[in-house]
Design brief:
The protein is an all-alpha fold. 82% of the residues lie in helices and 0% in strands. The two termini are 48 Å apart.
């Protein structure tokens, strides 16, 4: 356990990240699972390489692959936090406006939170967590503060902070939330414009690297191979096709990941 405790310190703030990602493991338990997963994958790779190459030197795959796989897999918590943040940001404006309508209609704050929990799958889970804490005897302000700390989304944290500050100062909660929502909408509009500017050069590079270069490059390769006398068998052509497909998938992944989460 001491080994895993030291290993968990490689990732700064791992405990907070696990809390935000909704992973119930302790940092030590999390790195232990990742370490064993990395070890099993490395052993599997060793067996595959050994069968194909029949050389004992491939045993070096394990000591080199384990740390590389560990550093890659330990980032799972960051990926999950980012996915949660995007899903929250897609709902946050609608949920915020819904909260404003409920409060302006005279609905009590706890009932408004329950309505959000019912109508919004991702954001509603955090407001439902507040209600559950209150029903278990926690003060409303403390419950909001605890949920705020577990939120992976800065926009949701801003709304909860505004709720908390308004409750402490006794100011109008609906008006304060409305100003935050308006600011979030403006930020999302700016993000859409920036995404549009990024999309044009990405589309151009996609056409060049994924369409023009492979088609012309394959033609040139066939012509040059014919003059030199190199035979291009089916395996080489399939490898080229697989490489082109991989490049296209990478570009599509980049375009998809750079798309801002918009809810307005």
């Amino acid at each position: 356990m001491a080994f895993y405790k030291r290993l968990s310190k490689i990732v700064p703030g791992l405990g907070d990240k696990l809390h935000q990602a909704g992973i119930l493991d302790t940092p030590e338990e999390y790195v232990r699972k990742i370490f064993f997963t990395s070890l099993m994958i490395a052993i599997g790779l060793f067996l595959v390489f050994f069968v194909f190459f029949l050389s004992p030197i491939v045993i070096l795959v394990v000591p080199f692959a384990v740390p590389l796989l560990f550093m890659y897999l330990v980032k799972y918590v960051d990926i999950k936090i980012e996915n949660l943040r995007k899903r929250i940001d897609e709902e946050i404006v609608y949920a915020g406006r819904f909260l404003i309508i409920e409060l302006e209609s005279g609905v009590p704050l706890d009932k408004a939170f329950e309505s959000i929990q019912t109508n919004y799958q991702v954001v509603g889970a955090y407001f439902g967590d507040i209600i559950n804490r209150v029903y278990l005897g926690t003060n409303m302000e403390e419950a909001i503060n605890d949920t705020l700390l577990s939120s992976p989304s800065p926009t949701l944290r801003r709304i909860l902070w505004q709720l908390l500050n308004s409750m402490k100062t006794g100011s109008d909660v609906a008006g304060a939330i409305n100003s935050v929502i308006d600011q979030i909408v403006k930020e999302q509009q700016i993000a859409v414009k920036e995404y549009g500017k990024k999309l044009n050069p990405l589309a151009m590079f996609y056409m060049m690297i994924s369409v023009i270069v492979p088609s012309l490059g394959t033609t040139m390769l066939v012509v040059i191979a014919t003059f030199i006398g190199i035979k291009l068998n089916l395996v080489v052509l399939l490898a080229l096709a697989a490489f082109v497909g991989f490049v296209q998938m990478m570009f599509l992944s980049i375009i998809k990941s750079s798309r801002p989460p918009i809810s307005a």
